[in-house]
Amino acid sequence: MAHTVQAKKRIRQLKKHTENNRMRMSRIRTYMRTVEQAIESGDQPAAQEALKAFQPEIMRGVNKGVLHLNMAARRISRLNKRIKALG
Questions:
Q1: Are 47 and 35 spatial neighbours (Cβ–Cβ below 8 Å)?
Q2: According to the 3-state scheme, what is the secondary structure of 4-59?
Q3: Hey, how many other C-beta atoms are within 10 angstroms of the C-beta on 67?
Q4: What does the alpha-carbon distance between residue 3 and residue 22 come to, in Å, rounded to a whole number?
Q5: Which own/partner contact pairs does 76-80 have at CB distance under 8 Å and 24+ positions apart?
Q6: Tens digit of pLDDT for each residue in 59-68?
Q7: Is the distance from CB of 24 to CB of 51 less than 8 angstroms?
Q8: Which are the contacts of 28, defined by CB distance < 8 A and separation ≥ 6?
Q9: Mean pLDDT on 11-27
Q10: Taking the model in full, what pTM does it have?
């Protein structure tokens, strides 16, 4: 158990940051799921709109330090490639 004031504060901050990161990742996964569902249904315009909504959300995760930039770029690229294959 932490004894110093600073260590106790870091524990409190860690809980708050962990909760925020979990919410952010959940939100990103939800957006990604909508893109996946649109691709599976074969609806290219809906998939493109879902991808447009997904991109800023995943990049926000990168800016907040939840995701790595290359991983986000790779996911966007692969989804975009699958959407183009629908047409």
A1: yes
A2: CHHHHHHHHHHHHHHHHHHHHHHHHHHHHHHHHHHHHHCCHHHHHHHHHHHHHHHH
A3: 19
A4: 27
A5: 76/51, 79/32, 79/35, 79/36, 79/39, 79/51, 79/54, 80/51
A6: 999 999 999 9
A7: no
A8: 54, 57, 58, 61, 66, 67
A9: 97
A10: 0.87
Tokens of 2: 């932490």
Q: What is the pLDDT of residue 87?
A: 82
Identity of the residue numbered 5: V
Please check whether residue 58 is in contact with residue 34, taking contact to mean a CB–CB distance below 8 angstroms: no
**Would you state the structure tokens that stand for residue 54, as one six-digit string?**
């997904």
Full set of structural domains in the chain with CATH: 5-86 (1.20.58.110)
